[in-house]
Each structure stands twice: as C-alpha cells, then as structure tokens.
Write a structure and sequence with these properties.
This protein is 20% helix and 26% strand. It has 238 residues and is of the alpha+beta class. Belongs to the pseudouridine synthase RsuA family. Its EC number is 5.4.99.-. It comes from Enterococcus faecium (Streptococcus faecium).
Length: 238
C-alpha cells in the first residue's frame, strides 16, 4: 500500500496534515526516517511508525493457478473473470490481477489488493522475468533458440528483447519448450513463435519474478502467499 494513503486512512489526516508529518520527520520505516510518500509498504515486511504510532496494513495477496476461459479482468458482463474465482469471503477489498494472461493461457497469476505492487512489478525498467511452458505444433530447433536469443522481429518491425528458449522435447509435429521473457506485449509468446512459422497450441505460465506456480494448486484454485513468498517480493517495496 502507498505510504501516504496508509497514513491518511489509518490516522484520518488531510492531505496537508499527512505531508506535514513527512516534513517533520515523523514517518519511520524499520527505524529509519522515510521521506517518500509514494513508497509501497506492508506491515508483514516493515515496521511502520508515524508520530510514534504503529500502523498496520491489511492487504490481500493470492497466487492463482489460472484456468482456461477465465479472462484476466476485474469484471466482465458475460465471461468468468479471474476475480470471480476468488471466494467472496476473500474479496473484502478491491482486487486486481498483476499483468494479464490470455483467455486460453493457464498458470501463475498474482492477484492482490496492493495496486502499487502491481504497478512496480509491471514497470518495464524492472525487467521482471516470466517463464512459460509452451507446446508448439512443429519441431523447435536450435535455429529457433538462436533467433529468440537474438531478439525475434515481428512483421511490423518491432524487435523483441532477447529471450531464453529451452527445448524440452522436439518432435516433427509437436515440441515442448520453456521460454523466459522480460516483456509483456499483447499475445507476445504466440507472436514470437508465429514469427518463426510455428503455432503455440498450449501455454502455461510457471513463474513471474520471484514467484513460482504452486503445482499443488489444482487448475482454478488459489491460496494466499506465504511469508517466504512475501519476503521474495520485498524488492518491489523499496
């Protein structure tokens, strides 16, 4: 949660009063004076003290194993969204998916009430790695690996950043690969393989940044992040 919003909410201050607390060095994070009003904080990771008062956050963080057909959106008048998969008892505050997965893509999706975390993780300069397992309709070759490493070029001239492609199984009419990218363009993985004359027939996200898909989660299931996983995300709270 943004630090300025937390102070305004918990201490019921005006915007002017909140800014004055920063100016008077009354805002402390882990014992150190904090001046950044937009800093992302969570009391699971930080000790937050303002004018001598200890403040606590109450954010939600869920790891979802997204199923096919669920759309990555907060709401949709016709289709089931990833938010609809969260039990009503766990939706006591607005939730947002971090990034997006295509409707027919499965796997890891982080859902949280902490909008600032989503913003930080999606900044291009953060270069958050995302790893996918893809099934492709043709044999993937070492030439494809080299092309991905160099940077796939789309038909419109856009050149993707270098990506790591690992072949798990390669047969004449089907291959299974692992692909790690640091971008998030619309339908990017599918377009990258199309540029090589191949088609993705199944796609599953295995990781995003420090988070990995919990294989114990059935498709469509979710759970709260563990403290260990939260600590891994602490790099986005600085």
């Amino acid at each position: 949660m943004r630090l300025d919003k937390l102070i305004e909410e918990k201490l019921e201050t005006t915007r002017k009063e909140m800014k004055r607390l920063f100016a008077l060095k009354q805002v402390m994070i882990d014992g150190t004076v904090e001046f950044r009003q937009n800093r992302n904080v969570d009391s699971l990771l930080h000790r937050i003290e303002v004018a001598g008062e200890h403040l606590e956050t109450n954010e939600s963080y869920y790891l979802l194993n997204k199923p096919k057909k669920a759309v990555t959106a907060v709401s949709d008048p016709e289709k089931t969204t990833v938010i609809d998969l969260i039990a009503s008892a766990d939706r006591f505050q607005p939730l947002y998916p971090v990034g997006r997965l295509d409707r027919d893509t499965t796997g890891l999706l982080l859902i949280t009430s902490n909008g600032q975390l989503g913003y930080e993780m999606l900044l291009p300069e953060k270069k958050v790695s995302k790893t996918y397992q893809a099934v492709v309709n043709e044999r993937v070759t070492l030439a494809d690996v080299a092309a991905f490493e160099k940077g796939i070029v789309f038909a419109d001239g856009y050149q993707c950043q270098p990506a790591n492609l690992k072949i798990l199984k390669a047969e004449k009419h089907q291959s299974t690969v692992l692909l790690t990218i640091q971008e998030g363009k619309f339908h990017q993985v599918k377009k990258m393989f199309l540029a090589q004359g191949k088609k993705v027939i199944a796609l599953k996200r295995l990781s995003m940044g420090p988070l990995e898909l919990d294989e114990q989660l059935a498709v469509g299931e979710y759970r709260s992040l563990t403290l260990a996983e939260m600590k891994k995300l602490s790099i986005y709270f600085k």
